[in-house]
Amino acid sequence: MAQRIVIIGAGFGGLSAAGLLAKQGHAVTVVEQLDHAGGRATVWEHDGFRFDLGPSWYLMPDVYQRWFHQMGTSAEAELDLRRLSPSYRVYFGARDVVDVPADLPATLDLFDTFEPGGGKKLERYLERAAYQYGVAMNEFVYRDYQRITDFFNRRMLVEGARLNVFTNLDRYVRGFFDSDRARKVLEYSMVFLGGAPDNTPALYNIMSHVDLAMGVWYPMGGMGAVVTSMQRLAEAAGARFAFNQPVRRIVVHDGRAVGVETDAGIIDADIVIANADYHHVETRLLEPRYRQYSDRYWDSRVIAPSAFILYLGLDRPVEGLAHHTLFLQHDWMDHFNTIFRRPAWPDRPSYYVCAASKTDPGVAPAGAENIFVLVPVAAGLEDTDAGRARFEAMILDDLEHQLGEPIRDRIVVRRSFAHRDFTARYNAYRGTALGLAHTLRQTALFRPRHRSKTVRGLYFTGHYTHPGVGVPMTLISSQLVAQEIGA
Ligand SMILES: Cc1cc2nc3c(=O)[nH]c(=O)nc-3n(C[C@H](O)[C@H](O)[C@H](O)COP(=O)(O)OP(=O)(O)OC[C@H]3O[C@@H](n4cnc5c(N)ncnc54)[C@H](O)[C@@H]3O)c2cc1C
After folding, report:
1. Torsions phi, psi for 442 (to 5 deg)
2. Dihedral through CA 15, CA 17, CA 18, CA 23, nearest 10?
3. If you write DSSP's letter for every residue of 19-76 in order, what string do you get?
């Protein structure tokens, strides 16, 4: 039966839910506080430079494809996708560089340079990762968990053991590889999941199948192009978007969500879906008696990192950068420890630089370079102007040292972004960039629920919920919600 559905937030979670539910025949309205869709995937344009403020890696193309298919089209029809080659570049130290190739035989050769038999070991590792990816996606990721027995059933325990849910990734990788370099290439992607190699279940070795075998892709126009296309398809299916309208309250009558209140008044609904940060929704948009999770619950969560990000428009290209370049410090666990164990601004962080203009001439003026530098840092840190200036100077010193090229004298556009911005722009809990980390105790059933247990007709989607962090995961989260609501 067609229902009136109001979605709070037009991030990837809200957009994907809007499209699917409108396609299912519901009357969908998306209410967004910003003046555009995309949420953390906002685009910022300045003096001819166009920056994706958030996601920049288009991974797991199968997941995007599934969404586009459900909308009656395909990723190829909607996006101009390019497979990046090399997939990415890694600096293990100053001018100590390797390119991780887009083709597998060359990647095996690369691993042979890391340690004796490295290629053969990688082959075995990736064979298992490919198998596990299939099982994980079918059995584990594309399904919802309402009660404990949905997770701890016989099948899950057998598959869970087979999928290495119960050990951590670092331990698992050490079982295959001895070299620091091999381990870093296979573990860096844990940052995408908001975790560290030693606190993320080994199941996520599937991320190596994702980046090394399925490939790293780029939609021309950037991730903003994906947002535009998803909004267009959602609107074509009948969804309406109301921008510049922060939701102040979810209206609940007799334990049922019946609408949302904005400064313009109340929008009635049969179902409300919250895509905004879970903590914000529970603590700011609902009366205390309708909260499902206490302050103690939130205090005890492992919150995913925030990020210090520098968006830089440069007047000429940087030779030492590929489209994606990772700068991994020798002792990278020390950096992870400052994120999860003893929160502090790190002294010698690893970081990531995106130079989208290497692939896409549309994101920078002719002859110029568009880069951003992203450093994962602990959520909840004090974020001051003076602190940012010191940190920025340290990062630029390190970047210039590693590259052996000057950066500072090329900067013509500059913007920094950290905790305060995540909180002010997105209502992020403790300024987190990514929501909740993927520790074992925050996986599947143990993530905050999709369906409220205190308010009927209230659902949640987005990166706090199962399956978790990253654009593909938020698309799946919405698919699960849309499936549960039904046509
Ligand atoms: C810097 C950065 C880099 C990343 N890199 C990658 C990457 O390379 N690849 C990848 O796959 N993922 C990446 N991610 C993760 C990915 O971007 C997120 O997991 C995903 O975009 C989260 O989407 P969401 O819809 O759950 O949340 P959001 O994007 O935060 O959407 C929530 C929306 O709700 C709105 N909202 C909040 N409060 C209210 C209110 N009261 N009323 C109305 N609206 C409200 C917000 O404005 C926002 O638009 C990155 C994230 C960041 C921050």
Report:
1. -130, 40
2. 130
3. HHHHHTT-EEEEE-SSSSSBGGG-EEEETTEEEESS---B--HHHHHHHHHHTTS-HH
pTM of the model: 0.96
Q: Which of 8, 29, 40, 84 to mutate to test the pocket of ligand 1 (most atoms within 8 A of CB)?
A: 40
108 and 210 within one domain: yes
Burial of 147 from C-beta contacts in 10 A (0-12 / 13-18 / 19+): exposed
pLDDT, tens digit, for every residue of 288-332?
A: 999 999 999 999 999 999 999 999 999 999 999 999 999 998 889
Number of structural domains found in the chain: 2
379 CA from centroid of ligand 1 (Å): 15
Beta partners for residue 253, in sequence order: 256
The full length of the chain comes to: 487
Q: Which of 162, 197, 214 is the last residue of a domain?
A: 214
Phi and psi dihedrals of 20, rounded to 5? Answer: -65, -45
Closest to 405 measured CA to CA, from 100, 181, 97, 98: 97
What CA–CA distance (Å, rounded) separates 52 from 221?
Answer: 9
Q: Which domain holds residue 454?
A: 4-39+58-73+221-300+440-485
pLDDT in tens, 90-108: 999 998 999 999 999 999 9
In this structure, are 158 and 201 located in the same domain? yes
CB 210 within 8 A of CB 224: no
Residues with Cβ within 6 A of ligand 1?
8-14, 31-34, 39-41, 54-57, 59, 246-247, 275-276, 280, 307, 309, 374, 426-427, 433-434, 462-463, 469-472, 474
Separation of alpha carbons 253 and 258, rounded Å: 7
> In this structure, is residue 382 part of a structural domain?
no
Q: Are residues 210 and 225 in the same domain?
A: no
Output the pLDDT for position 152. 64
Residue 53 covered by a domain: no
